[in-house]
Prior knowledge:
- There is one protein chain.
- The chain is an alpha+beta fold.
- The protein has nine helices and seven strands, in the order H-E-E-H-E-H-E-E-H-H-H-H-E-E-H-H.
- The chain has helices at residues 3-11, 306-313, 330-346, 375-382, 389-401, 413-433, 440-449, 486-491, 506-514, and strands at residues 289-291, 301-303, 319-324, 355-358, 363-368, 457-462, 468-473.
- Helix 4 (375-382) runs antiparallel to helix 5 and helix 4 runs parallel beside helix 6.
- The longest helix has 21 residues, at 413-433.
- The protein is elongated, with a radius of gyration of 34 Å.
Amino acid sequence: MDADELLLKYQSGTRDFTGILLCEANLSRANLSQANLSQAILSITNLSGANLSEVNFSQAKLNVARLSGANLTGARLDDAVLNVANLIRADLREASLINASLIRAELMRCDLSNALLIGANLSEADLREATLRQANLEQVNLNGANLTDAILIGSNLERASLHRACVTKGDLRGANLSNSELRQVNLSKANLSGADLRGANLRWADLNGANLSGANLEQARLSGASLCGANLSGANLMNAVLIHADLTQANLINSDCTGADLTGSSLTGAKLYGVSRFDLKAEEITCDWIDLSPLGDSNQIQTFSPKEANKFFNATFPTVEISVDTRLGFEAHTILAKIYHYLQQQSSLLSQPPTLEVNSRRTVISFKIESNEQLFNVAYIAILPFRDADVTQKAIETAIKQLTPDNCGHFPVQLSNRIVQLGVEIAQQIRLLTDIKLPQSWQAEIETSTPFFLNPTRTILRSSSHQSLILHSHAYFGRSLGCYSESSESSESLNNPYLNPKPLDTETILNFIKGF
């Protein structure tokens, strides 16, 4: 059957041309809409500008075929072979190309919006300026493909492989690239805002100048990747691997880097306002300075020596640690949870429940917080359930009163002013906290139901720079003398200097706060 005979049969109403052999034929601008050409052999056939809407090309062979400008909307090309085919400016909207082979096919400026390309092979294909809005490219092979300036907004590239592909200036807003293979991909200046890149392999990828704002990069592998000047504001980088990554002048404002591995990375000039430095792995990093201004406009620059940079990026969560000299029982646990829930409702300082470590001899209650500056205030409210609350709170008030210009005079002016200002701010916050008391009925329950809250305590502040400050340690703490009972209180006056320790040494307090 030649081309003319095919067209005559089509015009007479025939639509089934299954398995037809028609190589090198000229069917340009032909109308074959809704024809069945499954398993047809149409290699090197000219179908340029043809109307092929809703045609069934499943398992057809169209190697080196010319389909430029063809209308293939809704066409079915599942398992079809279109290697080196010319599909420039072809309309493939809503077409199905499941498991199709398009190796080195020319698809410049073609429209594949809402198309199904699951498992298709597009290795080394030319997709420059192609449109793939909402296309399903799950597990597609795009290794070595050219997607420069391509539009992939909202497309699904889950588990797709784009090894060495070029997606420069590509628009992938909201695209799903989770668990995709993106080694050595070129995504420079690409727009990946809001994209899902969870678990993606981006080792040695070029992301220079890329927009990754709000992107989800949780557990993504970015070792050796180049992210110079990339916008990662608001991105999720939890547990991401960025070993030896280049983040020079990258925008990380308000991003979540919890658990990220930045070992050996370069962070010079990075914008880090609102970024928690806690729970990071950041050994051997390169960082001369960072931008901590809210707008990333370099209004607040912090410079480092190599040693200072390592200390800054290897901080731990500031922690208020209350140790109770007895084991926590179920009844006390229930009461403690109720009290801290009540205190959280009274003050936003307790933003999350504490962690508990219980052994046969002691209970450690730890509050992790986001800011060193809140350590004293959190301790002031966290100690409230215990008999030692009054003496611990007085120790805090006394410590803060020592942050005066006279005591800070030997420090550089800028540091001295900062410490004094911090003291003023903490004191103001504490004045607001003094009105927070436990309901009177609870106090009776605490004292009669369990001795847990009457036992000696020790309150320690641990800063993000690994420094510790013992605010208060009861005289009987660790002496295994039983609970801090009414009888012991009555037998030894609280005015006894042994039970009321001297105020903390001024220099100790200043050195602790200086480490903030």
